[in-house]
Amino acid sequence: MSLKQILETEIKPQLQNQLALANPMAVPSVTKVVINVGVGESTANPQLIDKVKEQMAVVTGQRPIAAKARKSVSAFKLRAGQPIGVKVTLRGERMYHFLEKLFKIVLPRVRDFKGVKMTGFDKFGNYNLGLAEQTLFPEIEFAKIDKVRGLQITIVTNAKDVEKAKALLESLGMPFEKS
Questions:
Q1: Which among 107, 93, 91, 97 is positioned nearest to 151, based on CA atoms?
Q2: pTM for this structure?
Q3: Contact 115, 174 (CB under 8 A)
Q4: Mean pLDDT score across all residues of the chain
């Protein structure tokens, strides 16, 4: 069974009881996952954006877009509108597939992994996670990368507070740090 099917059949009723919610529509859920990769050195070499786009397309199963600079900064030789990163927004089946891969395959491959920190939550119930290298994903061939780059993953939920968001992500299988 996929993560989405497990969420609908098992996790949502369990969360409704755990959070003491009368309405099943009030149970929190994940709305989207946003993955960002910064490519600061693309100001000198614009072809790097295309390489990173290819890698992110392989990882996410969706074509990413180039994030462009909003302002010009002369100290960094940066012009407004110049591509400086890559981002992907996942929703629906691709989002659940990516989350399942992240929780079960990628995070356990992190060196000395003891769980993700609780400090990644913002006050709206969204979780931010930074990975130091893209080679943690099994789809990326180490021989084909030019440089190890980090990526930022934001899991956006419709939970109203951190406790509900934590309960949701924990029930989906996110490995939180034991305190």
A1: 107
A2: 0.88
A3: no
A4: 87
